[in-house]
């Protein structure tokens, strides 16, 4: 059996938490993403605190930030609301937890040196700085081996097997497990199953 790590990003409600907790009972769900940046999935620190309290402890929470201050991020880390930090934008800081640097891919030149433990490859869309729901050309990262990487950008049940062939450290899905902009238990179960068998 091949098990691929899975991150479900953009969790906003206790229903979302219930979905990933339910999937975790039978399948792999390793990370839950909380978005703290200007985005339709943005949540407050207070909401994140509540969601973290309801999250299965075996699922690690990831805080998603775009050029936030060190003090803001460190405060959320120190409170135990997030277990990993994911940086979008220019800023990245050492933290007392694992860190992820996101690259929005147009060419291989978009991959730059980073102090982070992991990298995340996502698609580029003009006018946005976070999740786009679209794919990028996966050939750009076919030869990448420097750090373990999360693969994001337009992944869903129809292409997850192809995504897994790139041998990422973790598959990262947000809109690909949504129905009408809300998380779908059925879709989360489908992708979690694919990552487990």
Quick description:
25% of the residues lie in helices and 23% in strands. By secondary structure, it is α/β, with parallel strands linked by helices.
Description:
There is one protein chain. The protein is of the alpha/beta class. Helix content is 25%, strand content 23%. Strand 7, helix 4 and strand 8 form a beta-alpha-beta unit. 42% of the residues are buried.
**Widest sheet: strand ordering:** 1-2-3-4-5-6-7-8
Which strand-content bin applies to the residues?
Answer: 15-25%
Biggest sheet record = 8 strands, parallel, barrel
The stretches of 5 or more residues where confidence is low (pLDDT under 50) are none
Overall mean pLDDT = 93
**Category from helices, strands and their pairing:** alpha/beta
List the secondary-structure elements in sequence, H or E. Answer: EHEHEHEEEEHEEEH
Total strands: the figure is: 10
Based on the model shown, name its key terms:
197 residues, alpha/beta, two-stranded antiparallel ribbon, 5 helices, 10 strands
């Amino acid at each position: 059996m091949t098990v691929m790590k899975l991150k479900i990003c953009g969790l906003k409600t206790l229903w979302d938490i219930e979905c990933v907790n339910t999937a975790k009972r039978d399948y792999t769900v390793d990370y839950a993403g909380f978005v703290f940046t200007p985005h339709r999935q943005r949540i407050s620190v207070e909401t994140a605190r509540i969601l973290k309290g309801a999250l299965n402890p075996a699922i690690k929470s990831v805080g998603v930030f775009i050029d936030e201050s060190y003090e803001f991020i460190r405060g959320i880390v120190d409170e135990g609301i997030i277990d990993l930090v994911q940086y979008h934008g220019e800023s990245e800081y050492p933290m007392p937890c694992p860190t992820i640097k996101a690259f929005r891919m147009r060419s291989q030149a978009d991959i730059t040196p980073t102090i982070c433990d992991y990298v995340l490859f996502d698609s580029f869309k003009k006018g946005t700085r976070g999740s786009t729901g679209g794919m990028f050309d996966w050939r750009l990262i076919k030869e990448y081996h420097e750090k373990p990487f999360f693969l994001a950008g337009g992944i869903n049940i129809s292409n997850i097997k192809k995504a897994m062939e790139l041998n990422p450290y973790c598959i990262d899905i947000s809109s690909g497990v949504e129905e009408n902009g809300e998380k779908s238990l059925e879709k989360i179960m489908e992708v979690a199953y694919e990552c487990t068998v």
